[in-house]
Amino acid sequence: MKPTAIIYSSNTGFTARYASLLSAATGLPAYCLQEAKRLAGARVIYMGWLMAGTVKDLGRAKRRYELAAVIGVGLGAPEAQSVRKTCRIPEQTAVFTLQGGMDHAKLTGVYASMIRTLTTFMQKKKNRTPDEDEMLRLLMEGGDFVRAENLQPVLDWFEMQ
Predict the structure, then answer these.
(1) Span 104-133, mean pLDDT?
(2) Whole-number Å distance between alpha carbons of 138 and 103
(3) What are the residues facing 71 on neighbouring strands?
(4) Given 32, 42, 92, 145, which is the most exposed site by the fewest CB atoms within 10 A?
């Protein structure tokens, strides 16, 4: 059975942009988590931003909705299976990860502080791998990686529902 809506939680706007792109491609309405309470019990695609390998507000979404798919959006794009394991997402729920971006101007409070701490830690780390060097560059310079074509695996899954 196809999902009936896209529900998302976004901190700096990258997840919201992906939700909008996915909505346009599928015809499903997209709602931020705060405004979607009336859809309790509906079968949905949940999209949340990634922090430390976990999908933000996923617990709340699990309690409110039947999750057909979970999409994590982060600065990097960790393996979907590691997100499944970390967030305890059942096998019958599809899991995807997408690269979003970093916008320092939109980070506030504890999240801005956490990014500064992580950046300092990464700068001091000796013998960084090429992936770690790339992550440090993204942490320092920011970037926007939201692209409609990144949603293709999600759209392929959606068409099979």
Answers:
(1) 84
(2) 10
(3) 47, 96
(4) 92
The C-alpha atoms of residue 147 and residue 116 are separated, in whole angstroms, by 26
Kindly report, residue by residue over 29-68, the tens digit of the pLDDT.
999 999 998 999 999 999 999 988 899 999 999 999 999 9
**Listed residue (141, 139, 145) closest to 118, CA to CA:** 139
pLDDT 10s digits, 61-81: 999 999 999 999 998 766 788
How many whole angstroms separate alpha carbon 117 and alpha carbon 111?
10
* 121-126 mean pLDDT: 90
The residues facing 70 across adjacent strands are 46, 95
Give the integer Cα–Cα distance in Å for 69 and 30. 14
Q: pTM score, two decimals?
A: 0.86
Helix (H, G, I), strand (E, B) or coil at 83: helix
| DSSP collapsed to 3 states, 11-39 | CCCHHHHHHHHHHHHHCCCEEEHHHCHHH
Q: How far apart are CA 113 and CA 119, in angstroms?
A: 10
Contact of 33 with 57, CB cutoff 8 Å: yes
Alpha helices in the chain (DSSP H): 14-26, 58-64, 80-87, 109-124, 130-141, 152-159
Helices 130-141 & 109-124 angle (0-180, nearest 10) = 140
